[in-house]
Amino acid sequence: MINNGHVPSMLLYGEPGIGKTSIAYAIAGSSKLPFFSLNATHAGKKDVEQIVSEARLSGKVILFLDEIHRFNKLQQDTLLPHVENGSIVLIGATTENPFHDVNPAIRSRCGEILQLKRHSQEDIAQLITNALKDEERGLGKFDIAITKEQIEKIALAANGDARKALTLLESVYFASDEKEGQSIVEDHVIEHLSKRIGVYGDKGGSHFYNLLSALQKSVRGSDPNAALYYLAHLLENGDLIAVCRRLLVMAYEDIGLANSAVGAHVYAATEAAKTLGLPEARIPLANAVVEMCLSPKSNSAYSALDAAIAAIHEGKTGDIPLHLRDGHYAGSIALGHVGYQYPHDHPIGTFGGWVNQQYLPDNIADAEFYKPVIAGEEKRMAAIYEKLKSFKNNQ
């Protein structure tokens, strides 16, 4: 499209340091249109009005708006008509999911939403190698003793972020000792400077919720290595309460009746974590995550409840049977609230008490919401459930 002279408005979505700004500048250089750049975190209405005025004079301009998810309504109202009529080509960049964090009015006017992927370790290593050779924009004019393995360590630490890779490379150079005019890079310098470089994601941001989702899906998939990896990322971001809440939900949503003790175990672990605080909180949480990963799993109980809720919303309701209604007042007999049989008065083997009577309304008396999963402890419960059903059908 750009080669054919058409530059569409677009959103560039991806993690920091993967080239959103570089792509915008490359498009501007290829299109030859007047180019303006703003950051939504500190741009004001006047900044937008100046670009609108320039668009009226030039006929068409490109506006690169970084952190577009922070664009306020007043700025949007000023800009939107001009994006719509094509006098302003908007290239927005965001680290947050545009379907969650970009105003729908802006999103609908951007024909392209491009999700960029982080760079591979090989790409970052090539970038570092280029920077070491480039005398004009890099470190090529300096004599630096650095091995291929050390370049790969820096590339790994950058975690797909080109900007972090170049920043780390520069920091390593300035932190290295010089001998006879040559800077000698040491492994321990790279390791020290790399400690937190892979940590990314604001609390409450899209990436944070992606990490929570990945943690839960890894536990559900019984992969302790992946689950611990995502737990580590989440704890490095520091939102302990959100992590504890998600783990507690997982204990009942994904482990459920297959191992009913897990709920109590995870609750104890999360309470201990909140009492201890970070970094010690990681210890009980690690135990909880590994236990959930390797536990039998069942979602039958909450799936059954969801099925019952769906039935109610579909209108599958009816009157509560008279014998189940409240009979603890004098007039209840006159209203027909009689006939209830007390199960404890009818012992059945070692189960306790059971009596065959109807509990659901007449029009859905045969509805079955609960479908047991034959796993872990629920296998025993499922057998009881099926046995009671057979008693009911035979009486």
Automatic annotation (TrEMBL):
A UniProt-annotated Pfam family: AAA
Record keywords: ATP-binding, Nucleotide-binding
MF terms in GO: ATP binding; ATP hydrolysis activity; DNA binding; enzyme activator activity; single-stranded DNA helicase activity
Domain spans labelled AAA+ ATPase: 6-118
UniProt GO BP: DNA synthesis involved in DNA repair; DNA-templated DNA replication
Superkingdom to which the source organism belongs: Bacteria
Family classification: Belongs to the AAA ATPase family. RarA/MGS1/WRNIP1 subfamily.
Protein name per UniProt: Replication-associated recombination protein A
Organism: Lysinibacillus telephonicus
